[in-house]
Each structure stands twice: as structure tokens, then as C-alpha cells.
Design a protein that fits this description.
The chain is an alpha+beta fold. The protein contains seven helices and four strands, in the order H-H-H-H-H-E-H-E-E-H-E.
Amino acid sequence: RKFAINTTFSILIISLFVALLTKIIPFPTLSHNILLATLYGGIAIGIGLGLIFKGGSSAGGGTILAKIIAIHTHFKTSTIILVLDAFVIILAGIVFKSLEIALWSLISIYVASKLIDTILVGAPNKKIVHLSSSKNLTILSNLIFDQLNIKGTIVTGNDLAATEHKDIIFIMIDKNKLNILKQLVYSYDKDIIMIV
């Protein structure tokens, strides 16, 4: 019920603002360059839809369907919007015999879907790092903790052939500390396997 009320409110507000703002504010065309229009159009749509979804609502049309599918499946709302809009755009390109405009539109909705993700989930600023070595990694884990103040987990095991003992460190680290970690890790073991 809350979603339906919020969606109805969003649709009314969007319609009202689109109608009023075009009458009140004479907004000139900022650019006739199709690439700029594609990218900035996608950014504007992505920010708008992202904020609407974050408020627990939808903008009507395909976004209602996307939100409902996202609730009942493991797919992200932005991915569903991307697929639905891409399908509509490809059909429109075939009907109106304008494949080039359809391709530009696909870029725009891709940009919009990335912005929706960023607003809903946030920009990722951490990375997961796996460190694997035949050396004992207790010393390295202590170095990582002492110098970078990062906690993690050491998993003890063997390689797939079960001929060599291997320890694996799992840690989560801020992106801006990644280079410091690399230097620290490779100074300890130049043959270490590091997966980010």
C-alpha cells in the first residue's frame, strides 16, 4: 500500500513539475551534440530514478514492474530497468528504422542504471583482497594489522593437488590503502598470490 501511494504521489509530482517548469522557466537546449545529450540525459535520469527508488517509490510505467520484479527476485532494480528499457528501445529502433538513435539510447539507459546503483547501494570504496602463500602468513597478518590497522581472517589449507600447504588471508581494505598493502605484501613475499 505504501509503495502504491508513494508511486502515485511521485507520478503526480513528476507530471506537475514537467508541465510547470517548461512553462515557467524557458530552458534553452544546452547542446546539440548527441554524445553529450546521451551521457548527461542518462545521468539526470539515473539520479532522478535513484532518488525516487531510495524513497521507496517508483516513477510509473516500467519502473513499477522493475521494482516489483526486484522485490521477488535476486535481480537489482537497475538491471531490470536496463533490460526492460533496452527491449523497448530496440523495438522502437526497428519500428522507426533508426538503429543509430536506438544505440545512443542504450548508452543513455546504461549510464542511468549505473547512477541508480550508485544512489541505492553507494559507491564502493572498499575492496576484498585474498592473499595466498606457501609461507606462514601469521607474520604478514601481524604486519598488516600493525601498519594498516586492518583485521581479517586466515584460512589454512592445501593446494588442489594436496601436495603443498597454503595459507590464505581474507581482508577488506579501503581503496586508497591498496597500494600500501601491495608494497607491504610483496616486500614480505615476492611470490605471493594477491587477488583484489
